[in-house]
Amino acid sequence: MAVHSAGILLYRLDGEGGVSAFVVHMGGPYWAKKDEGAWSIPKGELADGEDVLDAAKREFREELGVDPPEVDYAELGTFAYSSGKRVTVFVADGAGFEEGGFVFGEFEMEWPPRSGKTASFPEVDRAEWVPLARASELIVKGQRPALERLAELLRKQGG
Predict the structure, then answer these.
(1) Rounded to 5 degrees, what are φ and ψ at 10?
(2) Domain 4-157 has what CATH class?
(3) pTM of whole model > 0.90?
(4) Which 3-state string (H, E, C) describes 72-121?
């Protein structure tokens, strides 16, 4: 069965027609020296029977150590990666959400490989507001359609 994740895509308008997206740089040794294609929206896997929006909010909290903003969320869609993994993305205007005060969640893995030793790494190691065009270059390929859909919706709304 394909993995199903849920995440939150916050955006904000800059008042001059520009749009920024809130994205996170994936943590751990694999992503440490990568930039383009190494960013994501805050997201993670659903637990069995968990409401999808609740999962997205939980994952935001787990990855960043802060609650997602208390705003209205709309389901942007479910997007499939080439691997078969699916991510359901919720979008919201995050104009009042400021970066800072983050306590990044951690995961453990064998490191170095085949060493038998376990090391802890942050799930994400940076979180930033990035102009939407740049976010499209930075974010993992499977999430780029979500940014495209957001841009399309904002164009239709005149934003």
Answers:
(1) -90, 145
(2) alpha beta
(3) yes
(4) CCEEEEEEECCCCCEEEEEEEECCCCCCCCCCCCEEEEECCCCCCCEEEE
Residue keyed to tokens 């995050």: 94
pLDDT tens per residue across all 159 residues of the chain: 679 999 999 999 987 779 999 999 999 999 999 999 999 999 999 999 999 999 999 999 999 999 999 999 999 999 999 899 999 999 999 999 988 899 999 999 999 999 999 999 999 999 999 999 999 999 999 999 999 999 999 999 875
Q: What's 54-75 look like in SS3?
A: HHHHHHHHHHHCCCCCCCCCEE
CA atoms of 109 and 23, how far apart (whole Å): 24
Q: How far apart are the first and last CA of the chain?
A: 38
